[in-house]
Design the sequence.
């Protein structure tokens, strides 16, 4: 997750704050398309392009999408594929959404609402998946849980204490700045409303004000500053309130040593203590939108005249509610992966991650279980602008770079700008621990209650790749999960230029050094390569 801090910059409050949300085997062959001569996009994206840029083609559109539309037009056409179950391990999913309800997985072996485990899979009334969080949603970060446990023998305890103090103070300072900005914006809006006798004044009317009143002049200056950045004072106030809501969540829940959001009455340190949670996979509140957005990127119904097209047709989305507003529990993730595998998923998307993990072996064993059972696991690289070869990012598929899975894919994020700024400023990277990059900045997709929005994160890049994996498994079902991974990695377009990393113009690296492949995912090439196998 990344906060939008542009208002801080507009009004002169310096500082930016980012908040965190692979490996490969042998390469099969060279890519089918070459992009050495691809032109740069010099004009702004149209509205249609902005809502679909991840599906566009670098050669035809000069936008570094995954060539999804080209793949449908030239390869898939009217071919009939096989249904593929894709498990989304995330927050709750609005399975009643107009663009998702036709692609939701249903457990045909379970009778709804009878309180009986009809299929004997250990989960009662799991009609569309499972909810490991119960009624809970807000949670601490993992390193805050470590501090709360009081386990000073843990080798990372001192690091956790230092990190908690640093980040708490950082967010407290940011809250103070936003409170100040909010007061200034509200004061300016109130002053202008009083001056005009109405609240829906225009910027033209503001610019026409001539006065020696100091307060009114200050209100005019603030309104003009906001307008120059595309915001009215009312819009700015909304952004400030949204930012403050997120900041307060961090302070009240994520960093709060005394808070506990767990409601399921299980032992989080006992993997054998199962059966907790329930079959309600929907969000507990509208702001719980992450899982719905991820699901839409993978499989929102295509070409139905509604808001967004998913990457894959022929998918059934299995919702596994596991990721809270805070850090997920290792136990929940391990059991969620095993649930997905045992109930027929052939692709799993995991758009979550953390830098502390008390039971990484539980999740690692589950990832290996998926690999051993022919399931592709796609994971977001994280949003800390960091090299994950140098610092832990869980879950992973290796111990000291020795892999335990050959079907795990870790994904970094791209922007829509081909050239030096193609890598999203927030995206993690790593020559050893990130496999490929895919569209992740300003991705338009489904939101709860039949809404649609554009948001950014490696959380958005990962489901894009999961969608490509589902396409391959649908139209070339004889390929193994390991082969699907190899096809995705080998068929990507290589980027050979130097790029800005971490949004820092002074940090320039070769794109080939940011992942094991140095490639961006391309659905068109992947399907051609899959057909040749």
Sequence:
């Amino acid at each position: 997750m990344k906060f939008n801090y542009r208002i801080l910059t507009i009004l002169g409050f310096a500082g930016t704050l980012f908040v965190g949300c692979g490996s490969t085997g042998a390469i099969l062959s060279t890519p089918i398309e070459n992009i050495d001569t691809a032109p740069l996009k010099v004009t702004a994206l149209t509205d249609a392009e902005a809502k679909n840029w991840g599906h566009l083609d670098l050669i035809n559109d000069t936008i570094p999408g995954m060539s999804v539309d080209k793949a449908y037009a030239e390869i898939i056409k009217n071919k009939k594929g096989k249904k593929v179950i894709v498990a989304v391990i995330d927050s709750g999913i609005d399975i009643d959404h107009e663009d998702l309800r036709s692609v939701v997985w249903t457990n045909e072996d379970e009778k709804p609402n009878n309180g009986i485990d009809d299929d004997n899979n250990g989960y009662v009334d799991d009609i569309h998946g499972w909810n490991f969080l119960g009624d809970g949603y807000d949670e601490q970060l993992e390193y805050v849980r470590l501090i709360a446990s009081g386990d000073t023998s843990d080798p990372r305890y001192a690091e956790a204490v230092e990190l908690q103090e640093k980040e708490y103070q950082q967010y407290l300072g940011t809250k103070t700045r936003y409170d100040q900005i909010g007061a200034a914006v509200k004061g300016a809006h109130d002053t202008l409303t009083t001056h005009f006798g109405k609240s829906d004044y225009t910027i033209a009317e503001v610019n026409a004000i001539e006065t020696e009143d100091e307060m009114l002049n200050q209100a005019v200056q603030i309104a003009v500053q906001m307008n120059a950045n595309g915001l009215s004072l009312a819009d700015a106030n909304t952004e400030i309130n949204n930012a403050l809501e997120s900041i307060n969540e961090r302070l009240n829940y994520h960093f709060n040593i005394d808070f506990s959001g767990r409601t399921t009455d299980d032992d989080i340190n006992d993997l054998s203590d199962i059966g907790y949670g329930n079959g309600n996979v929907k969000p507990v509140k509208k702001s719980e939108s992450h899982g719905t957005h991820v699901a839409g990127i993978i499989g929102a119904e295509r070409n139905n005249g509604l808001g967004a097209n998913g990457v894959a047709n022929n998918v059934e989305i299995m919702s596994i509610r596991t990721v809270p507003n805070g850090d997920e529990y290792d136990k929940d993730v391990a059991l969620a992966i095993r649930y997905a595998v045992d109930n027929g998923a052939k692709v799993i998307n995991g758009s979550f991650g953390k830098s502390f993990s008390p039971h990484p072996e539980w999740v690692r064993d589950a990832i290996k279980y998926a690999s051993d059972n022919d399931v592709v696991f796609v994971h977001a690289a994280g949003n800390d602008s960091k090299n994950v070869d140098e610092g832990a990012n869980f879950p992973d598929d290796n111990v000291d770079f020795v892999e335990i899975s050959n079907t795990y894919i870790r994904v970094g994020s791209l922007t829509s700008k081909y050239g030096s700024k193609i890598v999203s400023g927030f995206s993690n990277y790593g020559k050893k621990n990130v496999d490929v990059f895919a569209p992740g900045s300003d991705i338009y997709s489904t939101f709860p209650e039949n809404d649609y929005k554009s948001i950014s994160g490696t959380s958005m890049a990962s489901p894009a790749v999961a969608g490509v994996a589902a396409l391959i498994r649908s139209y070339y079902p004889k390929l193994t999960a390991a082969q699907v991974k190899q096809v995705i990695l080998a068929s990507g377009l290589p980027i050979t230029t130097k790029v800005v990393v971490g949004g820092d113009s002074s940090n320039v690296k070769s794109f080939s050094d940011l992942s094991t492949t140095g490639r961006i995912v391309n659905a068109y090439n992947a399907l051609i390569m899959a057909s040749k196998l």
Remarks:
- The mean pLDDT is 92.
